[in-house]
Amino acid sequence: MNQARGDHLVMIEKDKLCTLPFRTFREGVFGKNLEAALHKLLEEFPDIIPGTQIDPNSEDPPIFVLLKHEIGAGPGSLDFILTDQYGIPTLIEAKLFENQESKREVIGQILEYAANAVQEWGDGRLRGQAAEYWGKKGQQLDGILSDRFGEDVDVENLWSQIEENLSQKKLRLIIAADKLRPEVRRIIEFLNSETENVEILGMEITCYERDTNAIVLVPHIIGQSQVNIQKKSKQRWQGNIEDHFNNLEPPLGQNLKNLIAELGIEPSNVTGSGFHLSNKNRKIMISVWVRSKIEFRFSKASKNDIAQLLKSLHIDSLTVKDKSDIESHGLEHPTPAIDYKEAMGPFDNIIKLCKTWLMV
């Protein structure tokens, strides 16, 4: 329902009919000038985004974590970048109805930000900026992601999925406002029906208040239809481990299959970007989102640990990287990683390394 100005909500309280009148964000709700109220609301309460309206058919609809408020994207600055538990980068631009940019210009703005997202946020740069943003608030980003999304979501795999979605331009764009202009609503509905990887939505947030102790916020998603929902539903990856074998360039898929057979370990945390191999308290995270190589990440290890192990095994065809491809520079505890391509010598060296590290 599109609540117009002057509408009110009706409540039944102790057998009496009560009303909550509409209140504009400009009247001191969370902020006192222009879009300050709307920005503060989205920054502090990302739960206001109704995931059940975005994907009502899902048993696990999207929930969100704010990665950064105000992030550079091309010539301008996007208001908010968030992620959901599926690693879908979610870009939000917030405009009050009274702001002249809330007309059609806001569509061009958010599309421009999206067009620059891959170039400016890929290769771990988004993770670095987000970690810095939360670090200034005295909080650890990865801890926030784990707390919000639960123990079944592996943070490293989540960042791999974010990187993959950025590279494939698989994004969600949301224009948030107290009220969307009719011409903007029509453009959103048209674009969302015509795009494949990019989901473009509007979100109206209407505020009602009887007194300072009773504020009700009603979010409403614009631009969805049953056809769009089915086409763009963000269910968890539905593939399996065989898909990874088949998607890699030969003979990498068969090599990976041989590794799993040699180790005798059942892959876990299988997602669209890779899987884990664990034994006791050791874990190797395997990324396969680039068809021409396999990346092996060694959890809770240092670069020196893996370098010394290679030396002891007399393997000189493999090189340890300071960090995995999805990590940004400057992390306190980067994850050492090894890339394997067909030209890097016998895959038996990888099998020997993994068997030794996992103690099997």
> In percent, how helical is the residue content?
25-40%
Give the number of DSSP strands: 14
Task: Give the count of helical stretches.
Answer: 12
Our estimate of the beta-strand percent is 25-35%
**Rg, alpha carbons:** 24 Å
N-to-C SSE string, H for helix and E for strand:
EEHHEEEHHHHEHEEHHHEEEEHEEH
Structural class by sheet pairing and helices:
alpha+beta
Overall mean pLDDT score? 85
Q: List low-pLDDT spans.
A: 1-5
C-alpha end-to-end distance: 60 Å
Count of spatially separate domains:
2
Query: Which geometry do the CA atoms define?
Result: elongated
| Major sheet strand order | 3-4-5-6-7-8
Biggest sheet architecture:
6 strands, mixed
Q: Would you write up a description of this structure?
A:
By secondary structure, the chain is an alpha+beta fold. It has two domains: 225 residues, no CATH class; 117 residues, Transcription regulator MotA, C-terminal domain (Aspartate Aminotransferase, domain 1, Alpha-Beta Complex), CATH 3.90.1150. Helix content is 34%, strand content 26%. It is built from twelve helices and 14 strands. Helix 9 packs antiparallel against helix 10. The protein is elongated, with a radius of gyration of 24 Å. It starts with 7 loop residues before the first strand and ends with a helix. The N terminus is likely disordered.
Summarize the structure.
The protein has 360 residues and is of the alpha+beta class. Helix content is 34%, strand content 26%.
